Amino acid sequence: MRNDQIRVSRRQMLQGTGIALTLPALVSAERRACGGGTIGPRLADSTPRRLVCVGNHLGFYPGHFFPTTAGKDYQTTSTLRPLDPHRRNLTVFSHLDHGLNGGHRGVQGFLNSIKKEEAAGFPEKNVSLDQVAAEHAGTATRFPVINMGVHSGTDMCWTRAGNHVPPVNDPAAVFRALFVQSSAAERQTERIRLEHRGSVLDALRESAAALEQTLNAADRNKLDQYLTSVRDVERRLQMSAEWLDRPKPKSPMKPIASQERQHIDELALFYDLMALALQTDSTRVATLETGLGFRTSELDLGSYHQLSHHGKSDDRIGQLQIVEAFLTEKLSRFISRLKDAEIFDDTLIVFGSGMSDASVHSNRNLPVLLAGGGLDHQGHLVCPAASHQRVPLANLWLSVLQWFGCQRDRFGRSTGTFSPMNIG
Hints:
The protein is an alpha/beta fold.
């Protein structure tokens, strides 16, 4: 059978399944026929490490975030004040960023140092910190990673195929996934779906293998990118099937009902769910995103987006101060929960934004802090500000991944590990 006949028959088979999953358009293939490596699962141990990444799309007003003094006895700021009970367990970093521009578009590079349009030029494209950690964790938990978000999130999570991972923004859906056991009939339906999707992916791989022989270099690269995304899907399907019949843990909190959405009011609920997911070892990697806009009944301040674009208005900056302290207060409460559960020292929290001062759409000097992880925290760590001495934020992310157990020497735009602080 000729390659073009294989391509046609496979495509007809896929169309017959009713699933919209097809090979990408390839120029050389149409001319003729018209014609990442994964990281193995971490071995289970008695003290597994956990990674939490929290990102805010609109940054933090620099004058209220960064301390004016360095070291462990730094003078706190209004944004950091809610975290004072934990100041010995965190490090605030000054003068770190990815060297990106683009304002809102630059925010998507927070956890990977690479914007979407640049991804093709990097070996792992724009895969984000959480997804690499999830690959390393493998099938050790029911969910390799749980991605949650208030409103629309920040676009900060990306697979190694360059695909955006949208956050789940309904706390009730997260609760059901963590604690509500599916019925036998529902599990059987899901098992059939997983098996069916698996067979479609097998057919796609066979089609791609036959087609690859007919392609030029550019189209082989495009096909390789596509197959990488297929491998991502396969990995998730395998993990879902492995955990399908295992009982879920019992929840210590009452079931959450879907209701009228008050977006920022859900932030504490998402933190509670994330703490329970880590405490029950349902996952070891979790993300939480705060998006551009939300409604709230607690804070009568108008649009958060409008406040962040303050234009140096004292009134707007004052209101923004309340919102940002609200965000760090919820983080402080989350840290307290992890301490109470005695998993804080094995959990490393990344908190910050790919935006600095949203009023000028700056992606430089990003607000970043680390908490927990059993590290020797430095309080306020002031990194070099001079352009020829600056340390890439990606170096810190590389050290975070090494702390998690990933054996690698590069990540995104990193030039090495983060030497000013021992994170290993």
